C-alpha cells in the first residue's frame, strides 16, 4: 500500500506488534494506534516513514519502549503518548527530532527518564513520577548556561515557559483528567486561567461592571 496516507488501527486490541515493512509506506502521513493495549514496542523501521506528520499512541497501555532513532523522523510534528502507563523512558533521540512541535506525555506513571525536550514548542506533561522534578532542575540549569553563553536571556525565558513542568508541580492532574474526558489537550493558557481563577473572576467582574445596565432611578413618590 505505497499510496496510503492515513492508517487508523484504533481499538485493534488483538494487535501485538507492527510489521517491519511498515517503514516502506513512504506516503503515510497519519498513524493512529490508540487503545492498542497489547503493543509492547514499535519496530525500529517506523522512523523510516518519511512523510509521517502525526503519530497517535493514545492509551497504548502495554507500550514499554520507543525506538531510539527518533532523529530519523524528518516530518513528524505531533506525537501523543497519553495513557502509555508502562512507558519506561522517552528516548534521547527525541531531542533531535527537530520537526516535532507537539508532544503529550500524560499518565505515564512509570516513566524513569526524559531527555532535553525544551526545543518542543508545545510540551504537555502530566501524571508522571514526581522524582522527574530533578529532570526539570537539570533543564533549567542547561537553559541558563545556554542563555549565558549566547548572551540571550530572552531565549531562556521563552524556553522556561514551554517546559510545562511548573504546571505539573502545581498539581494540575485534575485538569489533565478533565481534558482527557473531553478527548482533547489543554493549552497552557487554559491551565494558567484555571490555576488562577481569582484573576479570571476579577476580569469577568470588571467587564460586567463596565458593560452592565445603568442604575435605575427610584420611582416617584
UniProtKB/TrEMBL annotation:
The biased composition feature labelled Basic and acidic residues covers 186-195
PANTHER family reported for this sequence: C-JID DOMAIN-CONTAINING PROTEIN, LEUCINE-RICH REPEAT-CONTAINING PROTEIN 57
Keyword line: Plant defense
Source domain of life is Eukaryota
Q: Which residues form the Disease resistance protein RPS4B/Roq1-like leucine-rich repeats domain?
A: 1-89
Q: Which Gene3D superfamilies match?
A: Ribonuclease Inhibitor
List, alphabetically, the Pfam families matched: LRR_13
Q: Where is this region: Disordered?
A: 143-221
* Protein name per UniProt: Disease resistance protein RPS4B/Roq1-like leucine-rich repeats domain-containing protein
Amino acid at each position: 500500500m505505497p499510496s496510503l496516507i492515513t492508517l487508523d488501527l484504533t481499538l485493534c486490541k488483538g494487535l501485538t506488534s507492527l510489521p517491519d515493512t511498515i517503514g516502506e509506506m513512504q506516503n503515510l502521513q497519519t498513524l493512529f494506534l490508540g487503545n492498542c493495549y497489547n503493543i509492547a514496542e514499535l519496530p525500529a523501521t517506523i522512523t523510516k516513514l518519511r512523510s509521517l506528520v502525526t503519530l497517535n499512541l493514545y492509551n497504548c497501555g502495554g507500550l514499554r519502549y520507543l525506538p531510539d532513532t527518533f532523529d530519523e523522523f524528518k516530518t513528524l510534528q505531533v506525537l501523543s503518548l497519553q495513557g502509555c502507563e508502562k512507558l519506561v523512558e522517552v528516548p534521547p533521540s527525541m531531542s533531535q527530532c527537530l520537526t516535532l512541535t507537539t508532544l503529550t506525555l500524560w499518565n505515564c506513571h512509570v516513566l524513569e527518564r526524559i531527555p532535553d525536550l525544551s526545543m518542543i514548542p508545545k510540551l504537555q506533561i502530566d501524571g508522571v513520577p514526581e522524582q522527574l522534578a530533578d529532570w526539570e532542575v537539570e533543564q533549567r540549569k542547561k537553559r541558563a548556561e545556554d542563555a549565558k553563553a549566547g548572551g540571550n536571556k530572552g531565549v531562556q525565558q521563552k524556553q522556561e515557559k514551554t517546559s510545562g513542568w511548573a504546571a505539573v508541580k502545581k498539581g494540575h492532574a485534575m485538569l489533565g483528567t478533565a481534558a482527557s474526558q473531553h478527548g482533547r489537550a489543554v493549552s497552557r493558557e487554559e491551565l494558567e486561567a484555571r490555576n488562577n481563577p481569582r484573576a479570571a473572576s476579577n476580569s469577568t467582574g470588571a467587564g460586567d461592571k463596565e458593560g452592565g445596565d445603568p442604575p435605575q432611578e427610584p420611582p416617584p413618590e
